[in-house]
Amino acid sequence: MAKVRIYEVARRFNVSSEAMVNLLKEMKVPVKNHMSSIDDETIAQVAAKFEAEKEAVKQAEEEKKKKLDEAKRRRHAKREDAKPQVKATGAKPDKKAAATEGRTREGPRRRRRRRRRRKVDQQAVEQNIRQTMAKMEGRTRRRKRVRRETPEVSEAEPENLVKVTEFVSVAELADLISVPATQIIATCMDLGLMVTVNQRLDFDTISLICEEFGYAAQRQEAFVVSEPEDVEESEEDLSTRPPVITVMGHVDHGKTSLLDHIRKANVIAGESGGITQHIGAYEVALSDGRRVTFIDTPGHEAFTAMRARGAQTTDIVILVVAADDSVMPQTIEAIDHARAAGVPIVVAINKIDLPEAQIDKVKQELTNHGVIIEEFGGEVLATEVSAKTGQGVGELLERVLLQAELLDLKANADRTARGVVIEAELDRGMGPLATILVTTGTLKLGDSFICGLFDGKVRALLDERGKNVTDAGPATPIRVLGISGVPEAGDSFAVLEGDRQTRDIAQKRQRLQREQGFRRTKEPTTLEELYEQVQAGRVERLNVILKGDVGGSVEALADELTKLSTEEVEVSVIHRGVGAISENDVVLAAASNAIIIGFHVRPDARARAAAEREGVDIRLYRVIYEVAEDVRKAMEGLLAPEEREVVLGSAEVRKTFKVGRLGTIAGCHVADGVIPRTARVRVVRDGVEVYEGAIASLKRFKDDVREVREGFECGINVEGFNDVKVGDVIEAYKIEEIQRTLA
To answer: Domain residue spans in the chain?
Structure first.
């Protein structure tokens, strides 16, 4: 009986070798790894197992559909029974006869209806009490009740519309539609679902329950902040605000050096290798008293998302191009981001002091990419500068301010603050810190706010040099201290009234994210789930947990790692965060078979001990290039190895011997190579392979030997094959696994 290796069987069923090995072990088949062999009978059992599981999934879906159809049918029947019955003749009904008939035939049913009415009346009494108490406290709430007997629900009525997320519990849903939780549980039982008061419901179930009680459910994908009462902004309320300028361009073209000259401070000294790793926001006071806000974005291609975010929060883009270089890929990306954001571009041709500068060449290349400067008849302002000597920097600022005057930038400073997170980090001494660009209103000490998933209260406001300030107006970058956690770069920032409101919003957002993340990262636990993934086309996955010192770097690294995904190997960042690597990160990595990457952060003592105990791989880096290279190598390790056959030697059968219970022994002469005792062999007759198997015994004269080399004679007993004939060739070979690399 021919045997087939497990990896070949796995390929036949379109599953991974590891999954097939685990399945065979569950079936009590003695296998070691993917190189083990199984017979046709076992393969048939595997196929039957897959078909049985597929049929079970199909039957479960049909049963669920039947239950839902039956529940809908019963609900429709109840509504029909609730409608008033009127005779076609128009005659008045005989009340006495009806009463007699009810006592004789429908007595139990009438009694059940009476009990139901008394229950509804009791609920109405409780509702009136609640409304009266609310009026006494000055906070009346009006909520329209719809009785179950209502046959049709108008979706146009806003009172009947309930906005819910997918993770609403029974208790929360009962409060939303003013129905006791026990009635919702009873309705779920009618639908064939056994639930508890704290159990979460999916949207389909929520929709059916709401329909049962006369409400229409609407899915709410995320918990958004409801805007406070809008402040009517008239022209008198608006005042001129500073422009927000973003400096963009290719790596090493001098963006930070230019900003450094403007700020008169050495920013580059704080960056690894002279490459900007973060987004920096700075407010600069010019000599004439006017103020300008600058945002410095990195130029490396890994930080595309950070540059895009910079363009979305800016009024004007300064595009820096080196005169000794040309328009590079990151320069083109910066142009695209500025166009997508709809902001004007001011070109700064830097490094004109170098002898190899080719200014005209740069201008021509910019024209080829749609950036036509005034000199060539376009509308884009351009200035030739040198960040090293300061030549042309003053003229560049004048052009930027001229462009800002044309935009007529204004904002209302006398309202609650709104803004966006430019950068966020976890400071060892101060805790979570976020760099906020205030877009409207004035941020003050003591303001309660919601920022992404977290709430907080402003405890301190720091400028880019670490000095305390009391408030921050529109277009002002400010570092905020007092956030309950580290937000992500790009999150919205809004000041609300009261700590309780911000805390409730933050808790709901965090709960929603946790539950969505749980469903997103849940691995298949049953064969049905595995089968569904196989049908969808399963790929190998490298799970990564990413921790960094600032939010912008973490986001950019996640974007860079995701780009490494191929058709065969997918990179999945299952968790990202700011701060040191904690023990919880290690526990998550162990549970999801992930590696941990730390960028400018290190694990604490407990996390390191847990990693050693759980066998979790923690990699620490300071430069992004090394991260991408190492993850690429890890992905190559997940690629299925390429198998290649290597012929070790061949022996010609010159005589055969019948030896009792051992069977047929082939007397052979080794023609070339070597015949090892542990090698796989195939018997070739007239150029056609007639058998493939292992060597049962290998003898030289009467002694067992480990191998026989070229030119010597030996006796070979092929395991499970006695039909060896003179003239056959016994060929020894082995299978080598060659690790593949990404293209």
So the answer is: 3-58, 131-219, 238-278+285-407, 418-514, 530-638, 642-738
Q: From CA 733, how far away is CA 716, in angstroms rounded?
A: 15
Answer whether CATH 1.10.10 is correct for domain 3-58: yes
Longest dimension (CA), the chain: 118
> By percentage, how much of the chain surpasses pLDDT 70?
76
Q: Looking at residue 148, what is its pLDDT?
A: 36
- For residues 251 and 485, give the distance between their C-alpha atoms in angstroms, rounded to a whole number: 32
The DSSP symbol for 550 reads B
Domain 642-738 = CATH 2.40.30.10 = yes
Distance between CA atoms of 476 and 463, rounded to whole angstroms? 9
pLDDT given for residue 167 in this prediction: 64
**CA dihedral angle for residue 458, residue 459, residue 465, residue 469, rounded to 10 degrees:** 80
* The CATH number fitting domain 418-514, selected from 3.40.50.2000, 2.40.30.10, 3.40.640.10, 3.90.650.10: 2.40.30.10
Q: With b meaning 16 or more CB within 10 Å and e meaning fewer, what string describes 311-339?
A: bebbbbbbbbbbbbbebbebbebbbbbbe
pTM more than 0.90: no
Backbone phi, then psi, for 72, in 5-degree steps?
-65, -40
- Number of Cβ within 10 Å of residue 587's Cβ equals 14
User: Rounded distance, CA 319 to CA 305, Å?
Assistant: 17
CB atoms within 10 A of CB 194: 8
Alpha carbon distance 682, 240 (integer Å) = 87
Bridge partners of 455, per DSSP, are: 450
Provide the b/e sequence for 445-469 (b: ≥16 CB within 10 Å): eebbbbbbbbbbbbeebbbbeeeee
pLDDT in tens, 181-206: 888 888 888 877 777 777 777 777 88
526-547 pLDDT, tens digit per residue, is 434 434 544 555 546 778 899 9
Tokens representing residue 703 in the block = 């002694």
Distance between CA 44 and CA 145 in Å, rounded? 60
Task: Determine the Cα–Cα distance for residues 211 and 153; give it in Å rounded to an integer.
Answer: 8
Identical topology for domains 418-514 and 642-738? yes
**Distance in Å from the first CA to the final CA of the chain:** 40
